[in-house]
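Reviewer 2 asked us to include a model.

Predict the structure of this chain.
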Amino acid sequence: MPKLKLKAGSRPPWVGLAAAVWVEISAGNGYNFPLYSSALKSVLGYSQQQVTILGVANDIGESVGLLPGIACNKFPPWIVLLFGVFACFLGYGVIWLAVSQTIYGLPYWVLWIALVVATNSNAWFGTAVLVTNMRNFPLSRGTVSGILKGYAGISAAVYTVLYSTLLEQSASKLLLFLTLGLPVVCLAMMYFIRPCTPPSGEDSSVHVHFVFTQAASVLLAIYLLTLTVIYDTVSLSDAVSYVLLAIVVIFLLSPLVIPVKMTLFRGNAETLTPLPGSTEHLAEGEGDSTRADPLLSPSSSASNLGSFFESEYASDVETLLAVGEGAVKKKRRPRRGEDFKFHEAFIKADFWLLWVVYFLGVGSGVTVLNNLAQIGVAFGEDSTTILLSLFSFCNFSGRLGSGALSEHFVRLFLIIKF
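Predicted model (structure tokens):
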């Protein structure tokens, strides 16, 4: 990976996290399929089987993240986001042209490919912000991933509120918003999502900031679910609807409170200590080292494990001494907690265990999501807004909770994430 210039200071990582919230909301555009799938049947005359196959295209697009992952190790985040912007504009643009009947008679296979390209923007958006922010907060990777993936999960509820108010429950307007609105949002946030100097792990305010961000996201999720129920049961004036929508925007802007607070009340926010394993630390020290130190160093409670690792560490010391003397040029394999290349991870049992768990867990979820409109019709509900908002809330709760729990057990049992 080419060496990227790090943005110094204590505020840029938090500004990047606040910008990443908006990009993660954009990365949830694949959850909108239930909102416009009925239009594919009514306007284009597709059968339920054809719509189901388009749902498969929706899933394939958002799940194929190999290319974004490779790109994140070769290019800066803004280039990865630019690929996502192009895919979003091109894919949803073609679908909008068909649903709005601007162009008649587009072949079915063209729409299938367009949907794959459109939802593949999710992978580019999500990978860029997730990888960048986890590198910016190396000591809180579980918390950061939980927060960002949580916002991606709750994005369906955000789109549901937009669909019910600003877009007037029009599938054509929704697709036009996905075509133009999301690329504009991501282009606006692109400048702020950059590699930064990690904040000092000794600063107790870091934990407080994360708790504030998590609390704000939970309040947003509850508010969105309540708002969807209100819109579906009560007729509100346009003015009231826009005020309620403005509150959603304020919730989405709430992570910016952290860098603003750090600007107004500087204190010791500007004193940074380069973290072990960070780029600055490596530049100052062992420039010839091929691997960074583990991101989480064991505490005193790990002393009981000393005898278990004693022989392994002794052999590592001997190897390092031999390398320093030029006797050998052996490059050790990465351990958990360090960066793996793709071919290194591909042969690990942990990788395939995660793959199977992800396949089974996410596969069942997307199956329900793709057929959410039909499930609603079967229960006599013509509108899928409440069902989608409820699905989004549960999705958000699982993502945020898993990130917080993983970070808790990492710090409690010294389990290193990879």
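The two ends are 18 Å apart (CA to CA). The chain has a mean pLDDT of 78. We have added this to the supplementary material.
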